[in-house]
Amino acid sequence: MSRLRVLLADEDEEQLRSLKRVVRDLGHEVAAHAVTVAEAGETIAREEPDISIVALHEDREHALALISQLTEYASGPVVAALNGEDDPEFVKRAAEEGIFACAQALSPEAVQTALDVALERHREAAGLEERVDRLESALERRAVIERAKGMLMERHAIDDRAAFERLRSHARGNNRKVADVARAVVDGHIIAPGA
Questions:
Q1: pLDDT, tens digit, for every residue of 51-101?
Q2: Predicted model pTM
Q3: For 36, 149, 181, 189, which has the most beta carbons within 10 A of its beta carbon?
Q4: Which domain holds residue 143?
Q5: DSSP H or E segment with residue 78
Q6: 75 and 143 share a domain?
Q7: Is residue 69 within 8 Å of residue 96, measured between CB atoms?
Q8: Is 24 helix (H, G, I), strand (E, B) or coil?
């Protein structure tokens, strides 16, 4: 288990102190604790925590506003911590705001389990985002290549295969990627026949 920098957020000072003890006893560093939504944003910018925990005390709307702020600006995951209360509606709304896990109690075991789950889910989400980015990039490259082929087909009265071969041949001859040559064609650069 690696040592984490943890941001704690809640409006209740006593609850923050309790949660702070639990997190420190688990061997993690408490980066800061914020009471207001504005302080949470400033703290995130200043401290860059690995993970954030919003403790629910009594004001559910305040806790949800903190969660919203943290999920928007924090680079790490956000966990909601309930003090042994069963509040399915709050958990549902917190999930809609973007929490990655929920600790039902402020016990060391419950908090550490929630931290572990949140970090794993955050890694999985980051991996999915990376795959989506790669797929979108591949689709964009494919669209540019198709557009360039269409322009070459029209310009030189050639078929699809010949247009692609012209792009590929020019890319090989100039030590470039086919997508880069296709972008150049779309931008108006002319590839001479046989180039």
A1: 999 888 777 888 898 889 888 888 899 998 887 677 788 889 999 998 999
A2: 0.64
A3: 181
A4: 131-186
A5: strand 78-81
A6: no
A7: no
A8: helix
